[in-house]
């Protein structure tokens, strides 16, 4: 049987991140992708020029339409924009009870904000407790814990401990924004720590990296992989997509990774 995953995220008209990156990732991994749009961004490789957040009613209707009919094995949650969107998704997740990879998206690769400042607390209080795994990068982990950006694995571990107290079953802190020679992601589940080492790649075409990793993890979970294996395979997929990014040549700005 084909594994099925769902992405709940924003649309990136430039095709590099958000819903578009997620569906490309699912397809590349042999997973059937379904999607619930939370927001529409007018965006290219240079930046975001407009955002329209969709209403709670249409977000709820999309989730119910997909999950009442289609056997979704795991959900990826990305751009959630507003307090109302977060409440709607949390309520639906409690009703539908699925494994959820929560990627706490806050800014676009271009630096444009994708989460309203007043929604950070709702994300912490309502979505984090429902996550099978939370996937912050270093700046997101710092913002969610009210600490400064971690520079050592010890500091990443302290932030993971604080985040686990908010309720996710596991936290994957991604080292991609760090300055060491390896890009190491650390998975904390409250009992053990698992390392995922990858090469630090020189490309500036890294648009959609966070989305791609989270979608690949959700795809792996939908296939029935355990979390460690799903993350290991997702990191391999992302590393290959980043290594091929310079050959893609899309747009004049910070381009997308190659699916
Ligand atoms: N979701 C949407 C709709 C976006 O446009 C972006 C970035 O521009 C993101 C998520 C996060 O992107 P990344 O995967 O590069 O962290």
Automatic annotation (TrEMBL):
Transmembrane segments: none annotated. One of its GO terms (molecular function) is phosphomethylpyrimidine kinase activity. Keywords: ATP-binding, Kinase, Nucleotide-binding, Transferase. It holds the Pfam family Phos_pyr_kin. One of its GO terms (biological process) is thiamine diphosphate biosynthetic process. It is an enzyme of class 2 (transferase). SUPFAM superfamilies: Ribokinase-like (SSF53613). Residues 12-258 form the Pyridoxamine kinase/Phosphomethylpyrimidine kinase domain. Its EC number is 2.7.1.49. GO terms for cellular component: cytosol. InterPro entries: HMP/HMP-P_kinase_dom, PM/HMP-P_kinase-1, Ribokinase-like. Pathway: Cofactor biosynthesis; thiamine diphosphate biosynthesis. This is hydroxymethylpyrimidine kinase. It comes from Phyllobacterium myrsinacearum.
């Amino acid at each position: 049987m084909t594994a099925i995953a769902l992405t709940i995220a924003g649309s990136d008209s430039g095709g590099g991140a958000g819903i578009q990156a997620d569906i490309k990732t699912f397809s590349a991994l042999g997973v059937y992708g379904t999607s619930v749009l939370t927001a529409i961004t007018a965006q290219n490789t240079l930046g975001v020029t407009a955002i329209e957040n969709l209403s709670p009613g249409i977000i709820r209707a999309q989730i119910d339409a997909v999950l009442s009919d289609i056997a979704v094995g795991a959900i990826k949650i990305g751009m959630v924009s507003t307090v109302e969107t977060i409440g709607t998704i949390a309520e639906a997740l409690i009703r539908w009870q699925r494994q959820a990879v929560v990627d706490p998206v806050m800014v676009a690769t271009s630096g444009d904000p994708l989460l309203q400042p007043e929604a950070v607390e709702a994300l912490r209080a309502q979505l984090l407790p429902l996550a099978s795994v939370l996937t912050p990068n270093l700046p997101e982990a710092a913002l969610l814990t009210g600490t400064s950006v971690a520079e050592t694995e010890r500091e990443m571990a302290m932030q993971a401990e604080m985040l686990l107290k908010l309720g996710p079953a596991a936290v994957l802190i991604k080292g991609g924004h760090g300055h060491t020679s390896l890009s190491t992601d650390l998975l904390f589940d409250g009992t053990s720590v698992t390392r995922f080492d990858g090469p630090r790649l020189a490309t500036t075409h890294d648009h959609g990296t966070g989305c791609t990793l989270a979608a690949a993890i959700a795809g792996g979970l939908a296939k029935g992989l355990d979390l460690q294996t799903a993350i290991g395979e997702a990191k391999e997929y992302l590393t290959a997509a980043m290594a091929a990014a310079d050959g893609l040549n899309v747009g004049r700005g910070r381009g997308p990774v190659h699916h």
